[in-house]
């Protein structure tokens, strides 16, 4: 069952600054790690992913870093904009015929104009 | 890009009734779809994996008789919440994976269920 009284960690960032959202994962066997953005009342939107054999991947204004030694994933958003305000989830994906996508707890990003 | 559509987006029902939520892949065939549940301020929790033409695989703790999943075609999976109660009120989200090696995963917009 779900945890009672669970609150999402919140990150408040000034518009134009860079944001760093962190995530710890548990399964060393995951094939991919994915960052999703979820706006209120909507489904998750894919932002960027990274294969387990990579350390860094860059997209448009976003960079994902993967540290397998400490099982840590981060999402960096450059020049944060008000439209970036949302909840961000990391997820571990395992394929190989047994697809499983497990979501982390999420971080709420609030951008201060 | 690929689109996954859910219907209805919002539904309110009385306690004891059953509610069906549809998940459609609009421009691709999806042999595998996933159903998630999300409570307020919490993460998405996988409920079950739906495979076309076969029985769904449920996660531990999810009642298969309570949450009926049918994946009768390559573009449609349905989740029926049977005899719904207020504690079933939640945001239900489906996702579908495109076929072939390196399949991509796409999410629906979610369905908000409120049981009175």
Structure description:
The complex is a heterodimer of chains A (113) and B (116). Chain A is mostly beta strands. In chain A, 0% of the residues lie in helices and 52% in strands. Chain A is built from no helices and ten strands. In chain A, β8 (86-94) and β9 form a beta hairpin. Chain B is mostly beta strands and 116 residues long. Chain B has no helices and eleven strands. Chain B has strands spanning 4-7, 10-13, 19-25, 32-38, 44-51, 57-58, 67-73, 76-81, 90-97, 105-107, 111-115. In chain B, strands 2, 4, 5, 6, 9, 10 and 11 form a seven-stranded mixed sheet that branches. In chain B, strands 1-3-8-7 form a four-stranded antiparallel sheet, with no helix packed on it. In chain B, β4 and β5 (44-51) form a beta hairpin. The chains are: A mainly beta (113), B mainly beta (116).
Please describe the topology of this protein.
The complex is a heterodimer of chains A (113) and B (116).
Chain A (H helix, E strand, L loop, with lengths): L9 E5 L4 E6 L7 E7 L6 E7 L4 E3 L3 E6 L4 E6 L8 E9 L5 E4 L3 E6 L1
Parallel strand pairs in A: 1-10
Antiparallel strand pairs in A: 2-7, 3-4, 3-8, 5-6, 6-7, 8-9, 8-10
Chain B lengths: L3 E4 L2 E4 L5 E7 L6 E7 L5 E8 L5 E2 L8 E7 L2 E6 L8 E8 L7 E3 L3 E5 L1
Parallel strand pairs in B: 2-11
Antiparallel strand pairs in B: 1-3, 3-8, 4-5, 4-9, 5-6, 7-8, 9-10, 9-11
């Amino acid at each position: 069952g779900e945890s009672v009284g669970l609150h999402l960690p919140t990150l408040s960032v000034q518009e134009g600054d860079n944001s760093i959202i962190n995530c710890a994962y548990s399964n060393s066997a995951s094939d991919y790690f994915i960052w999703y953005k979820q706006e209120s009342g909507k489904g998750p939107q894919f932002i960027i992913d990274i294969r387990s054999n990579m350390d860094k991947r860059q997209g448009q204004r976003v960079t994902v870093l993967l540290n397998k030694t400490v099982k840590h994933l981060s999402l960096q958003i450059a020049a944060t904009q008000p439209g970036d305000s949302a909840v961000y989830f990391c997820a571990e994906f395992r394929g190989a015929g047994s697809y499983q996508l497990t979501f982390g707890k999420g971080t709420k990003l609030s951008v201060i104009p | 890009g690929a689109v996954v559509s859910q219907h209805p987006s919002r539904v309110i029902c009385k306690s004891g009734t059953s509610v069906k939520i549809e998940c459609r892949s609009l421009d691709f065939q999806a042999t595998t779809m996933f159903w998630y549940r999300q409570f307020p301020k919490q993460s998405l929790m996988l409920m079950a994996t739906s495979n076309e033409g076969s029985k769904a695989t449920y996660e531990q703790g999810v009642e298969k008789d309570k949450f009926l999943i049918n994946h009768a075609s390559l573009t449609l999976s349905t989740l029926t919440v049977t005899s719904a109660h207020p504690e079933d009120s939640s945001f239900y989200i489906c996702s579908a994976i495109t076929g072939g090696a390196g399949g991509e995963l796409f999410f629906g917009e979610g369905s908000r269920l409120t049981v009175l």
